[in-house]
Design a protein that fits this description.
This is Thioredoxin reductase. Keywords: Flavoprotein, Oxidoreductase. It holds the Pfam family Pyr_redox_2. It is a single chain. The protein folds into two domains: 181 residues, FAD/NAD(P)-binding domain (3-Layer(bba) Sandwich); 115 residues, FAD/NAD(P)-binding domain. With 305 residues, the protein is an alpha/beta fold. The protein is elongated, with a radius of gyration of 22 Å. The chain is built from eight helices and 16 strands. The chain binds flavin-adenine dinucleotide. The site of flavin-adenine dinucleotide has 40 residues, from helix 1 and helix 8.
């Protein structure tokens, strides 16, 4: 079976790309293996018309709207490997082999869990990564930000912006690292507490975060913890050997969204630290539109349309 485009990933990025390509009359296969990045979240926020929608409902609506376009197939399969070249890719699925003229990767990122007792259990319910997504619901509660050595430059901007949502903000750390005096002074001026002994354990009651226990024995009360754990690509992306930027995201041409491998495009979380459902959607649509122009020109000039 030859498709114009195989899209890998059925989150906001892939669904949006499939819609755009479907409406452009391209033959599309959207493959999704299921695990969602925001699986632990109860609602999606900060996506106009979908604010407060459960993630599963978001995907259900996305798939339902794609049913209008008979040229788009949606399949719950894993893409195991991609070989070949621009115009003639061989895509091995968990259900068999297909061919595609172009590939669009919308595979998202995988959040690692930090090795702190309680972190895994509280992720998505009391531990969040984005205040625009979840800050409103917990405004004026006891906030904490979990800073990491590997991400130290984000400590001050994140902690100061958190004050926009709550007067009660603490910074705790996942590991030991130097915090410049200027940062300490600015946090203090903003009324933000800084604890420099690493968090050993998160204490919860009835599934709700109550405090962090630090390695020096201090208990820091908190209702909500913001954290940016390390992220990694799905195996498929790693195996493709695409060029990455200095932060480890897949490098794409900002306009064309083509990766370092000709004919393979990418959009959504896997290409940027600026992550969010609406942004992944926009990137998916952009990739689809640019890819469609290029593919249509090629097909038209070779008499294949
Ligand atoms: C706990 C949590 C809560 C969040 N809440 C919000 C929020 O309220 N608002 C907001 O805007 N953003 C939120 N986000 C961020 C948002 O979820 C992401 O920015 C968004 O989902 C990214 O979309 P995407 O399409 O790039 O990737 P994803 O949504 O991660 O989708 C990628 C898809 O690709 C599939 N996939 C991966 N590899 C393969 C393969 N080999 N074959 C087939 N399929 C594959 C995965 O199964 C997955 O379904 C939240 C994130 C987290 C972690």
């Amino acid at each position: 079976m030859l498709y114009d485009v195989v899209i890998v990933g059925g989150g906001p990025g892939g669904l949006s790309a499939a819609l755009a390509l479907g409406r452009a009359r391209k033959r599309v296969l959207l493959c999704d293996s299921g695990a969602r990045r925001n699986a632990a979240a109860v609602h999606i926020h900060n996506f106009v018309t979908r604010d407060g929608t459960p993630p599963e409902e978001f995907r259900r609506i996305g798939r339902e709207q794609l049913r209008t376009y008979s040229n788009v197939e949606v399949s719950d399969v894993r893409v195991e490997s991609i070989t070949g070249e621009r115009g003639a890719f061989r895509v091995e699925l968990s259900s068999g082999l297909v061919e595609a003229r172009r590939i669009l990767l919308c595979t998202g990122m995988i959040d690692e869990r930090l090795p702190i007792e309680g972190f895994r259990e509280l992720w998505g319910t009391s531990i969040f990564q984005c205040p625009y997504c979840h800050g409103w619901e917990v405004q004026d509660r006891r906030w904490a930000y979990l800073a990491r050595a590997a991400d130290a430059s984000h400590l001050m901007p994140f902690a100061l912006q958190a004050r926009g949502w709550s007067r009660d903000v603490s910074v705790v750390v996942a590991d030991v690292f130097d915090i410049p005096q200027e940062t300490r002074d600015r946090l203090k001026a903003a009324g933000i507490r800084l604890e420099t002994s690493p968090v050993e354990r998160l204490v919860a009651r009835d599934g709700r975060l109550e405090a962090a226990l630090l390695s020096d024995g201090t208990t820091v009360p908190m209702d909500v913890l913001f954290a940016h754990p390390p992220q990694r690509h799905v195996d498929l992306v790693t195996r493709l050997g695409l060029a990455l930027d200095e932060a480890g995201f897949v490098q794409v041409d900002p306009m064309k969204r083509e990766t370092s491998l000709p004919g393979i495009y990418a959009g959504g979380d896997l290409t940027t630290r600026m992550q969010g459902a609406v942004m992944a959607s926009a990137a998916g649509v952009q990739a689809a539109a640019v890819l469609n122009v290029e593919l249509t020109m090629e097909l038209a000039s070779s008499g294949k349309l």
